[in-house]
Each structure stands twice: as structure tokens, then as C-alpha cells.
Amino acid sequence: MDRRPIRRFRPDRAAPPPTPAQRAAWPLTVPAIAQVLDQGLELPAGALVLVGENGSGKSTLLELMAVTLGLNPEGGSVHTRHRTRATEPESLGLVVERSPGASRWGYFLRDETLHGLYSHLEEIGSPDPNYHELSHGEAFLEVLTRRSGGGGTYLLDEPDAALSFGGSLALVTVLLDLVAAGAQVVVATHSPIVAALPGATLLEVGSWGLRPAVWSELELTAAWRQFLDDPQTFLRHLR
Fold this sequence. Notes:
The structure is a single chain. By secondary structure, this protein is α/β, with parallel strands linked by helices. It has a single domain (6-238), classed as Rossmann fold (3-Layer(aba) Sandwich). It has nine helices and nine strands. The chain has helices at residues 20-23, 31-39, 58-69, 114-123, 136-146, 165-180, 192-195, 219-229, 232-235, and strands at residues 6-11, 41-42, 47-51, 94-98, 106-110, 153-157, 184-189, 201-206, 209-212. α5 runs parallel beside α6. It is globular and about 55 Å long.
């Protein structure tokens, strides 16, 4: 039996197609977003990892998923209500196909809005620790670990931005535990460590939209390998 919390995001067949003006405006000018709106996106069981350059659309795609699922777009669950400035796309008429009886729990973490989320949790008297008193990386891992009790769907936007090498390995451990408990995880990352998450499906995001990828063949992996082998090959061109 298919127990994936989310089977796929698909276009609403009852909704009118985007107009030429909408096609020419953000976020449909992002190839990955246009592709999902036209073709949908199936979510695998376990983990889906999105990799790509800055501006490729990884974060926008995660924000679109969060809004479509009804999660707080600046981080949190469906019950979280805190906003600073709306910058995320609307749902664009996408429909969520879920597995009957599967967990509907969801949580969204965005590195760029963690300060607001931590302040919100403090203001409502959450039993969580004061995340502002922890380091950036410690706080991220703590808030995720405290909400990773079982199944559901977890959207993580660039969690590696907060983490050291060891912290990235710790994150991989948390994600593996989530997957083992039946959760679905979608991660956007610039980290070759997080991208190497065992058993994850990889999609590379770019001007082509979304395409399947293999870790050893990623531009991300090749660039880090070349840099670590000989940093001066890159650095001498910066002066």
C-alpha cells in the first residue's frame, strides 16, 4: 500500500491555464516553477533533495510547496501564525494528492526566517528552549529534532547555511531517522554532504527546470572536489 504522506503536487485541472501575462511574470518565469505548474511533481517515499545554483528556484519551489500545503510560509506548521513580509508565491492552483490514512503533519523551516520563527515561539510561551540563546546551527538542529517525532512532511530550505561540517552530518542523521519513521523530507541544499543523504532522490534545479541527478555527477560535487584538491586554481582568478 502506498503510504507516502504526499504522492504528488499537480495542476488543478478545473483551474484556467495561466495567461500570457502570468507566464511573463514571477514566479512563472522560474523554469522549475513553470514545469511544476504544467507537469506536476511527484514526491518519492523518503527524501527528495534539490540542488542548484543561487537563483535557480530551489527556495521558491519549497515556498510554493509550503503554501500549497497550508504551512506557515515563514516557517512552522499549519498552526503557526507569524508574518513579517510576504515574499513567497501563491499556491498557483496546485492540488495535493495524499495517501489515504497517511500523516498530514507538516513543518517548514527556512534559514532566512528562523529569527522570526524563534521570536514567535518565545512570544507564545512555547516549551521549547530559547533558540535565540543557542548558536545558529544548534538552534536549527534543536527545533527540527523536537518536531521529528514521526511521519509527515518536512520542508527544509538550505539547512546547511547554519551548519558546520559536523553539524551537516548531524542533520543527515536526523533526516535518516525521519525517513525511517515514515516521513517525507524535501531539502534544498548547497551542501555536498546533505546532497549525499543515503537513499535520497536527487533533482538538479536550473535553467532547464528540474531534472534527475546523480551525486557523483553533480556540478556541486565536482566544484567542491576541484576546489579542495587545489584551491588556488579558483582563487588566483579572483584577483
